[in-house]
Design a protein that fits this description.
29% of the residues lie in helices and 45% in strands. The chain has helices at residues 2-22, 26-35, 87-96, and strands spanning 40-48, 51-58, 61-68, 73-80, 101-110, 115-123, 126-133, 138-140. It has an eight-stranded antiparallel β-sheet with strand order 1-2-3-4-5-6-7-8. The chain starts with a helix and ends with a strand. Residues 4-21 have low confidence and may be disordered.
Length: 141
């Protein structure tokens, strides 16, 4: 019984520590609130030592946005449907992945004013991701 109590307390402390690590600094939260006024259901995660990601609902749609630890907006990812992709992206994907089952599609707007598109497919039990630019060039698979 004593061991169980110690394990439970250790897990609670670990959970508290992990939660505290994912909370974004005030300047990051403030920058987020200015960019995404009236966003709801905001959940913060720490991407790495210098980047935070907020998952949230805004204007009736699910989004995620990344900010540097200094509060600089880096990118926003929003869910779209396959038919909303630029024609060049659809053509490039269809030519290389005939018969693939598309799981989800995202539009990524960056602070450098570029658009990227991520297509996730279900391949057997795995999920694969493909990143394209607006011209249909594969950036990452």
């Amino acid at each position: 019984m004593k061991k169980l109590l110690i394990v439970v307390l250790a897990l609670m402390l670990l959970g508290t520590f992990c939660f505290a690590q994912s909370k974004a600094p005030e300047k990051v939260v403030k920058a987020f609130q200015q960019k995404f006024e009236k966003a709801s259901l905001v959940k913060w995660d720490k991407e790495n030592d210098h980047e935070y990601e907020a998952s949230f609902e805004w204007k009736g749609e699910k989004h995620s946005a990344n900010f540097s630890d200094t509060g600089e907006w880096l990118e926003t990812e929003s869910t779209i449907i396959f038919n909303q992709l630029p024609e060049k992206v659809k053509t490039a994907f269809n030519n290389s992945h005939k018969g693939s089952v598309v799981k989800s599609v995202y539009k990524i707007e960056t602070s450098k004013k570029t658009l990227k598109y991520e297509i996730e497919i279900k391949e057997n039990l795995d999920t694969e991701e493909f990143l394209y630019d607006s011209n249909g060039t594969l950036l990452k698979s």
